[in-house]
Structure formats: structure tokens, C-alpha cells
Amino acid sequence: MDKSDIQIAQEARLLPIAQVAAKVGLKECQLEHYGNTKAKVDIHSLRDLPNRAKLVLVTAINPTPAGEGKTTTSVGLADALNRTGKKTMLCLREPSLGPVFGIKGGAAGGGYAQVVPMEDINLHFTGDFHAIGAANNLCAAMLDNHIKQGNELGIDPHRIVWKRCVDMNDRQLRNVVDGLGGVMDGVPRQDGFDITVASEVMAAFCMASDLMDLKERLSRMVIAYTYDRTPVTVADIGAQGAMTALLKDAIKPNLVQTLENNPAFVHGGPFANIAHGCNSVMATTTAMKIADYVVTEAGFGADLGAEKFLDIKCRATGLAPAAVVLVATVRALKYNGGARRDELGTPDLKALEAGMPNLERHVRNITQVYGLPCVVAINAFPTDTADELALVEASCRRLGVRVALSEVWAKGSEGGVDLANEVVRLCDQPSTLRFSYDLEAGIEQKLNAIATKVYHADGVDFTGPARTQLAQLEVLGFGDLPICVAKTQYSFSDDQTKLGAPTGFRITVRELRVAAGAGFVVALTGNIMTMPGLPKVPAAQKIDVTADGRIVGLF
């Protein structure tokens, strides 16, 4: 296939979004159109409908530069399920402009398994991220204004934990000093920016069940501490109403379509190595009411995305996947086994066998820690050999899971029928979701459970500041919240150079933060950043627009 992803997307025949909506029983009056091919869905008339769909979670091995094709597999699986007569909806996250212009260049699937309009989804889309950024920065402005106007609450400027945000990779903004100038220009202090997808507004937005639940979540977000270390919340500065007003339209799920004109919600987008990495609860639960199968994706590898989807999102909503798809590629497994990036297309059974423990560990986590049925989807590449595919299949067979070859990138839904049939079979098997830790355990105990059960570490260590923060959070009553670990996506460990299935390591927590509105405690490990930077040659250099307004270079 010589065509680029964006060429395929631009040549696709899109249906009017009302026709796509009709496939799952949505009526014209329930749509708020953003042009002819995308719309927001007013869900008020759907709220009282019961969840009826079987939920399918798509996750993956740890990502590598070789790529795993998780989103591509998710789109192709949804199309394949529809092709086999199953009324299916897809639920994905919205792409952040940071990775679009930084490294990835687009995040709407690939080949003949994409959601469209691809350019809109990857760029401004329906403006949700701009609304989230505006709400975040309104809170920051009101917080600094409170201090400037007399600081009635006694906020300690050195203990402000709320940052401004922008949806762009901009390392220059990680640490700034603002409020400089004269008396009328604010109170000088050290400040910083997060990328929008790392804002707690994004996390609360994606965990909210409706608009009023969102307002309540916003109101309890901790933004600073007083001189006597009492938490200051959004409600304390009276910002929650205005912030919710900025988000009242954004919170409605966005409806688009796949290349095969099947319905998809693309809504919300917290990073999985920083936040919880799932599309919005509202999109998922709405899809569960109107389809028979719902395919959704969790960010990065299963140690991050699937763990948070199951331990945080499913715990909060009562949802449970009926089946889990674990995506891998022969190329990425060889990379985990020590093969050089420029040799991944060369047959190498030794490297593949050395990389298989990464896949095997993820499989065991899904089936043994969480108790869920699992199928391994091998995202096919032309360089894969029969012997390499046979090795993967034999290894998975020993674990009691099947392998399905996914060729959706090249063939669309036709290349995903075998995977779809196996997913349907698994969905008909009884299963009971187990969590990796008890909610009633303390913060340290929950972190140790994640580290030992999911990462297979020997335990967790805390820096001095993190140990102090742990004690403070438990005294303040936040000890019973779930845990959201911010960790490198490239390794089970907190060291991105440890590929495969490392052992004999410990996880070091350097900082703990409460995300009271989102409903979890964030544990930062390693050198994880909440404001990424651009690479030496950013993807933005290849993106352009022609005289007739056509975007090129997105992929």
C-alpha cells in the first residue's frame, strides 16, 4: 500500500453524520452538528436506558519505536464486528496537539482502519481541549487574583499546586516566574505549565457521569494549601460554576465515523503515562446503552492503560470488560528482545523469543491478576515470517490464550474477522473482574500491590518529600482513593531502558499529588514529565496546507 494514512482518509466517502447515528438508533434531534461529518450527542434522553453492550478493552504490550497499532486494531476490530452483524460502537480518546506536532503526527488509526475526518480529529476537532484549557486557566487566574486582592484564605504562594496549561509540547514553560512588573501586575511567584491532557480538569472531565457530577468534581479539586497547610479547593475561590459553564458543551460526546462508516465516539484524552489514559465515562456509558458491543482503548501498554482502566475507571463506574484484546507486533517483540531498530524487518527468532516475556507478562496480568478472558492480536507486517508467527502462537497457547492475526491496516474489516470472531467467543464466556488492590488499603499498600502484581517489581520506595506527602494525604482523608501511577510507558519498571520483562527492580515514587476531583492519588515515578518537549525534528515541520485548504503531512 503506497498511500499515506491522510491520503486514504481524504479519499474516503463519508456519510452524513445523521446517517451514521441512525445505525445505533440516534435521532437527528439528539445531534448537535459540527459540519456534516461530526456531531455532539445530547445524551439527556439516553440517561435512563440500561447498559446492554458487551465491553471489549483493547490494550497492548509496552510501546516501542516500532509501534504496536493499538488504535488501528481498535478501529479495525469495531469495523470487523459490524461486518459480522454485531451492532458495535467504538470509543477512543481525542488526540492531543502535543504529540500530533511532536512525534506521532496523528492518532486516528492507520491504513484502512481509521476514524474520520482524520484532519479534524487530530487538530481542533470540536474544541473540547480548548474548553478544558480555558477552564483550567480560569481557575489559575482566579487563584492568583484572590492572592492579589488580599488573600483572605491565607494561601501560601509557595504551596500553590495548580498550574496553567497549554495543549502543546513546550518544555520552555515547565518552570516560569510570573506576576512580574508593577503593583498592578500581580504577585510575583514561581509557576509552571502542564500540557492540557495532564490537567486535572481533563481527568475530572473524563471521569464525570454528567454535567452536575463534573461541577462537583471541579469544586473539590485541591489547588493550593494555606500557611497552616489546610487544602484550598476550587470551591473555596468560587470558580466551579464558571469552569463548568466553559465545559457544558464540551462534555457531550463527539460522534464521528470509521472509514467503513461505522459510528465512533472520540471524546476526552488524558495521557496514560501521566493520568488515567481512557476516553470519557460519558462516551463509554452512552455507547453501552445503544450498541451490542463497545470497543474501547486504554493508553500505552497494559501495565499503564489497562491497569488504570480496570482499577480506576471500572471501579468507579461498575463497568467490566467481557474480553480484552492485547495487541503486539513481531517487530516490537523483537525490539524488546534486543534487536536493533534498523533490523526489525529481518527474520530473527532468537530476538523474538527473547522479547516474548513482555507479551507473556501482560497476558498473565490480564488473565490471572484481573481474571479476564484475553486474545492476543498480532498486528501484521509484511516482514513477519510464518516461523515467527508460529513462535508467538505457540507461546500464547502455553498460556491458554489464542492468537489472531490482524490485517486491518491493509484490508480494513476484512482483515479483522478472525479477531472479531474470537472476541465474540470470549465475550460469551463467564468472567468476574478482580482488582489489583483493595480500595480500603493505605496509599503505600496500594502502590506496593500495583508494583508487585502488575509491574512485577520487588516493591516501592519513597523519596523523603514523597514520604512526607504520603503522610499528609492520609491525614487529610485521601488515603482511600485509587492510585494513578505516572510512569514511563516503555518499561514495566520506572526506567525506560529496561525492556522486555525486567526483574529485580523497585519502583521509586518521587512525588504524590491528590487529584480529588478526578478521584485518585497520582504517584509520580522516574523522570516522567507533565509537560513534554518537542524532539529535535518535530512532526510539525512536515505538516502543511495547500492553496485549496487541504492538509498534508499529518501522517
Question: How do the helices and strands line up, and which of them pair or pack?
Answer:
Layout: H1 5-11, H2 17-22, E1 31-33, E2 39-41, E3 54-60, H3 70-83, E4 88-92, H4 97-102, E5 109-110, E6 113-116, H5 118-122, H6 128-148, E7 155-160, E8 164-166, E9 176-178, E10 189-191, E11 193-195, H7 200-207, H8 211-219, E12 222-226, E13 231-233, H9 240-247, E14 254-258, E15 263-266, H10 281-290, E16 293-297, H11 302-317, E17 323-328, H12 330-336, H13 349-369, E18 374-379, H14 386-398, E19 402-406, H15 408-411, H16 417-427, H17 443-455, E20 460-462, H18 464-475, E21 483-486, E22 507-515, E23 520-525, E24 544-545, E25 551-552
Parallel strand pairs: 3-16, 3-17, 4-15, 4-16, 8-11, 17-18, 18-19, 20-22, 21-23
Antiparallel strand pairs: 1-2, 2-14, 5-6, 6-14, 7-12, 9-10, 12-13, 14-15, 22-23, 24-25
Helix pairs in contact: 3-16, 6-7, 6-9, 8-9, 12-13, 13-14
